[in-house]
Amino acid sequence: MTEGNFVDYVKIYVASGKGGRGSTHLHREKFIEKGGPDGGDGGRGGHVYIVGNEGLWTLFHLKFARHIKAGHGGDGGSSRSTGADGEDRIIEVPLGTVVKDKETGEVLFEITEHGEKRIVAEGGKGGLGNWHFRSSTNQTPRYAQPGMPSTELDVILELKVLADVGLVGFPNAGKSTLLSVVTSAKPKIADYPFTTLKPNLGIVAYRDFKSFVIADIPGIIEGAAEGKGLGHYFLRHIERNSTLLFMVPADADDITKEYNILLDELRRYNPEMLDKDRLLAITKCDMLDDELKAEMKEQLDAELDGVPYMFISAIANQGMQELKDKLWKMLNSSK
């Protein structure tokens, strides 16, 4: 999938169908000139459903679907015949999609399972025909109920990527390179910041045919929690990851400081993200000799307060298997 085809945010106007009118028909046939009421009920208006589909990874198919309307219910007929129900509309979305009311910002629901089906706009109920209103004092009622009106709503569909491990780091920290080495994903890689503008997913093949999913999230900058840079467009994707892999390059001016800035951006966006398992990877370590590594370890042990870390180099394939082993252990430690 190309980067331009990854769409994780769309706005859609949805409208259910209105209910059909009840009939005011009076029974007439040969030899029966003044039969009683036999008006049928109106049909139900169509619903608009949102359904989870594990085969979808993006909201791209909804990018140009600005208006989605269900069918109106049919009117009731004679002989107590009920009008046809309006045609339902189904919107398929990838797992991890959050549905919000555009007006209020309220989260209506989230779709997290394949086949999960929720009504976002309920069709109007059909009106009752005059047959329901007959009585001993009013044997030929000439009125019936109108159908209930349709429901109209502007909704926001927001995708939060479902992955086991999320890569967190400043631009150009080597996240895309790591993803390309440990998975079969082919993210865009270059030596300038913000190469990655959309999340990339990859499946890591582990021992004994096991696997887990890793997500390369666009790089953080200071102030991202307030919406600077790519802001909330990437931070929401990290919420779904059970383990966070922080990545800081070995040539950074201050590794601990960069790690703490990344951590603070997550805390300001959503403090609950600090409850996730964390691992710090010092990337691009092929440029370090053993003596320099030993010095850095001594400093990191004193500054990181027990945060697990490891040295890796995706380009030189150093520490890749150890990284997979560590991540697999973290992902399965609570199971």
In short:
Helices cover 17% and strands 23% of the residues. By secondary structure, the protein is an alpha/beta fold. Mg(2+) binds at residues 176, 196.
Keywords, please?
2 domains; 14 strands; 23% strand; 17% helix; Rossmann fold; Spo0b-associated Gtp-binding Protein, Chain: A; six-stranded mixed β-sheet
Low-confidence stretches: 187-197, 224-232
Number of strands: 14
Strands of the widest sheet, in order across it, are 10-11-9-12-13-14
CATH superfamily of the largest domain: P-loop containing nucleotide triphosphate hydrolases
* Shape type: rod-shaped
CATH topology of the largest domain: Rossmann fold
CATH architecture of the largest domain: 3-Layer(aba) Sandwich
Tell me the span between the first and last alpha carbons. Answer: 33 Å
Q: What Rg do the Cα atoms give? A: 29 Å
Order of helices and strands: EEEEEEEEEHEEHEHEHEH
Report strand %: 15-25%
CATH class of the largest domain equals Alpha Beta
How many domain modules? 2
Q: Largest beta sheet, briefly?
A: 6 strands, mixed
